[in-house]
Amino acid sequence: MRRFAFILHPLRFDDFARKYPVTRYLPPRLVESLFKHVNPVLAGHVTKVHSETGEELEGWLIGLPLTPQVILNAPYEWVLKKLEKAGKMAEDLGAEILGLGAFTKIAGDRGITLSQRLNIPVTTGNSYTTATAVEGTLAAAKRMQLDLSTAQVVVLGATGSIGRATCFVVAPSIQRMRLVARHGDQLDLLKARLSHQFPHLSVDVSTDARQAVLDADIVIAVSSAPGAIVEPGDLKPGAVITDVARPRNISAQVSQKRPDVLVLDGGVIEVPGAHADMGFDFGFPPRMVEACMAETMILALSNRLENFTLGSEIEISKVSEIHHLGRRHGFKLAGFRRFERAIDDGEIERIRGYLAQKRDSDIPNRITF
What we know:
Shikm_DH/Glu-tRNA_Rdtase; 13 helices; Shikimate dehydrogenase; 16 strands
């Protein structure tokens, strides 16, 4: 039996009510302030995960009751002490490796210092998140019959840890890429690296996310922005959008107002084991988790008890390696999903049909709502 632990935290105020129902009746700022003084809690117990190799896995979900705003705005040493307490809890429970979820892997030096203060290895899960984001995007583009030789691909949050790795992983499959982030100097450096390594690739940059996606055929959204940065009127008909970010980069209104685009939840993974129990309501159907948590599980099952993905730079070789290990154990993409619900072939056909009708009617690419 292999064992892991994973740290999670509320992404929105409403998430507090999943464990503490009374909080829905209190002012958000009061709840946020009160929970700064609450220690990590045991949020769930993962059981009955069975690898296709025969290995069995259990794990513990450790809740850190801090919102993204608190994690990002508080002094890192204070956040680090909270993470260290969570890590010590994981050790006491018997976990062999610890995964960092959501904004706990963005704060500070992205797990490096924490790993030095614990007796078990730490991973952010960003390698497997990158691998499955690109896998899902290319599969959706093929399903939508997009021509990758002419498609304009936009990466939102390109200079971040996952964004940068995504650029290098997807680059061999495409011809045109636009990098989007807040800081122009970092974008220029990344553009130079990509252009040098992939001479076939045409690369341009932008610091304006909404403007950058107007002509995009494919969007991979991995920005760490605390809220939506793309609205319904920003997207081109027929576009494929993979939203890996949590909280989401793509407004929820897109699914309501744009029946002519395909928006996918990036990094949702189906776990092996017919009766696997994730021990927590992630908002997904049974046996489904985020890719960052899946990486921790895969490493535990593989007995790869090491600091696999830490810091701001992801090794591309590790992206390929964890992808291979995941397949070996039976982890796989949970099909096409949008805002926590499955997308079937019929819906994709309807999107393509709606797009064809628009083209026949000569409706402009950009729609104003």
